[in-house]
Amino acid sequence: MCFRTGPFSVRLTSDVRGFGATWQSCYSPMELLPDDMVCHLRISVMRERGVRRWLGPQAVFRLEGIQPFEPYPLSQAFPMFEWGLNWCIAMSSHYHLLLHSAVLEKDGKAVILPAQPGSGKTTLCAGLVGRGWRLLSDEFGIVRHSDGQLLPLPRAAPLKNESIPLLAESAPQLSFGPRFDRTRKGDVVHLFPPRESLERQLESATPRWIVFPRFQRGAALELIPQPPIVALTRLVGNSFNYRVTGVSGFRSMSRLIRSTRSFQLLNGDLAAAVDAVEQLLAEDVL
Amino acid sequence: MPDQWQHFAEDEILIEYFEDSAAVYCTASGETHIVDAFPAEILKIMLPAVPIDVATLSTAFAASLGDAADVWSDEVEVVLRRLEQMGIIAAVRV
């Protein structure tokens, strides 16, 4: 099948039992595209055919017929596909500036949450979705060079380990996928993108705040303004493709910094962190 | 010592000022440099991209602070050499 996800089109083939059902429950009503369409990415998630299939069934991810990763256990085909698709986009989509960040929008104003793994980005992102923020992306801040708008890429957000029960308890109204134990990134449950996010996946958002989250167990909440030059330096280091995009990337990055306010958000509690971002919106600090 | 110093052309060096600092992008290297207040101000004075000597630069910079030019000439020269090493300006021999 061919489908659209944000600004990208994907042709996906799979023979893994149960993979399609998980995909459907996550992405319905994702816009399907004509089967004969030429897509940005051609991906397959297939059962491993070698002798290994008798020892421990595995799934193989391929992009344009090339296998960039080692196989995953067959039962982890869905998270493998999600991580693989993200990798494909990060490696090839240089006509936009790509930040490694979550992006959410409320009342027409978007917050960018750039972060390294382990910073609590996905947990905070899910917490904000639970408070009614529109999920643009958990993984990519896609900045359009022409106007600086943020493009949605609403995909499943992988909650890990202790975040799983935390979100299940604090935002039970959200939809979650099956649990995948002992993946390469720990135990994982995906937050499925809300229907509204999928239906509005072609609707860009205007960046308003950049919030660098940092989770630290037991830490008191601190929302510390970041000087623009510090925010720019951090975002350059955070971007997937800043160096590749050259002058366009520099101009887009500079415009993004000028049009937003930046903060460091140190937190040890999800509810307090969500409140802090909500407070930015309430005060419309700009 | 070079007689004068000059910005590269506008399509070779892009400068964005943020408060008292600046981000400088070099198209030749693809590098982004962050410079603090002093070199940022020197670059601003050099923006017309015509050759300028240390004395003129120091005078212009000192004037913005109400100082005498000779107070700043040594520091200005050090900054110019750093900016040259970063590929942001070039020495011009007349």
CA-atom Rg of chain B in angstroms: 13 Å
Largest sheet of chain B: 3 strands, antiparallel
Structural class by secondary-structure content of chain B: alpha+beta
CATH class of the largest domain in chain A: Alpha Beta
Q: What does the average pLDDT of chain B come to?
A: 87
Radius of gyration of chain A: 19 Å
Strand content of chain B: 25-35%
SSE order of chain B, as H and E?
Answer: EEEEHHHE
- What's the total count of β strands of chain B? 5
Q: How many discrete structural domains of chain B? A: 1
Determine the CATH topology of the largest domain in chain A: Rossmann fold
Total beta strands of chain A:
17
User: How many separate domains make up the residues of chain A?
Assistant: 2
* Coarse morphology of chain A: globular
The helix/strand series of chain A, from N terminus to C terminus, equals EEHEEHEEHEEHEEEEHEEHEEHHEH
Chain-wise SSE layout:
The complex is a heterodimer of chains A (286) and B (94).
Chain A: E1 2-5, E2 8-14, H1 19-27, E3 32-33, E4 41-47, H2 52-55, E5 58-63, E6 72-73, H3 77-92, E7 97-106, E8 109-114, H4 121-130, E9 134-137, E10 140-143, E11 150-151, E12 157-160, H5 163-170, E13 176-183, E14 186-191, H6 195-199, E15 206-215, E16 222-226, H7 228-238, H8 242-258, E17 261-267, H9 270-283
Parallel strand pairs in A: 2-4, 8-15, 15-17
Antiparallel strand pairs in A: 1-2, 1-3, 4-5, 5-6, 7-8, 7-9, 7-10, 10-11, 12-14, 13-14, 16-17
Chain B: E1 4-7, E2 13-18, E3 21-26, E4 32-35, H1 37-45, H2 54-65, H3 73-85, E5 89-92
Antiparallel strand pairs in B: 1-5, 2-3, 3-4
How would you describe this structure to a colleague?
The complex is a heterodimer of chains A (286) and B (94). In chain A, helix 4 packs across helix 9 and helix 7 runs antiparallel to helix 8 (242-258). Chain A folds into 2 domains: 1-93, no CATH class; 96-286, 3-Layer(aba) Sandwich (Rossmann fold). Chain A contains 9 helices and 17 strands. Chain A is globular, with a radius of gyration of 19 Å. In chain A, a hairpin with an 8-residue loop joins strand 5 and strand 6. The model of chain A has no long low-confidence stretch (mean pLDDT 94). With 286 residues, chain A is an alpha+beta fold. With 94 residues, chain B is an alpha+beta fold. Chain B has one domain. Chain B has 3 helices and 5 strands. In chain B, the strands form 2 sheets. A 3-stranded antiparallel β-sheet of chain B has the order 2-3-4, covered by helices on one side. A two-stranded antiparallel sheet of chain B has the order 1-5. The radius of gyration of chain B is 13 Å and the shape is globular. The termini of chain B are close together. The model of chain B has no long low-confidence stretch (mean pLDDT 87). The chains are: A alpha+beta (286), B alpha+beta (94). Chain A binds chain B through residues 227-229, 232-233, 236, 242-243, 246-247, 250-251, 254, 257-258, and chain B through 14, 16, 18-19, 21-23, 25, 27, 30, 32, 34.
